[in-house]
Specification:
Elements lengths: L1 H31 L1 H23 L5 H6 L1 H18 L9 H20 L14 H19 L3 H5 L6 H29 L14 H19 L2
Length: 226
Amino acid sequence: MKTISNFFAHELTKRVITGIIFGIIFFGTYFYNSFLFSIFLLGILVIALFFEWPKLMPINTPLFWLITPWYPILSVASLIYLNHSYYAIDKIIPIYPIIIAWASDTGSFILGKTYGKHKICPTISPGKSWEGLLGGITSVTLLNFFLKSHSIVLQNNFFFKHPISIIAVSVFLAVFGFLGDIFISFLKRRQNVKDTGNLLPGHGGILDRFDAVFFLSVIVLILFFR
């Protein structure tokens, strides 16, 4: 029992340290300037596309060439577009898909680990539960109400005009982010891969960390395209 406890403590420590280091690099490049953040996003695409994606989608299959232009290429291109178009206007929007995805993950993890009993798709992702999904939806909804008061773009967006529409779009975004998570989980299980990479100790690879982000980035681009 002590060995198991030490193992989980070690894993948690790795996750926290990695998260802090990655967070410093991520937000450091973002707040330094827009161009550097775009370069950072391109770096994420290169790592995901050439080192991780082929593990899940073999390059010698037709599906690779069919899906890759949309995922992950269009996903990262959407993030870069949002960064280019909104950085000078509203600094929340370029990283909106990212903070929404991470809020959803956090809410899902907390409620899922605490109350999760009803599994959604145990054969693909045994850890996912309906309670966890509700936690993700709740986190995204609360975050959207908070962000609206700090974002000029959100205040003027049609989907953020009324409380009911904020709740509706929050549910949609949380569910879509969840589908991004399930998509990568399905591909990992199909290829018998635990993690897409080891770049982020305790978290796995870029695709393990950005699975929901890459799904949400295109949806957010549609919501805020101008």
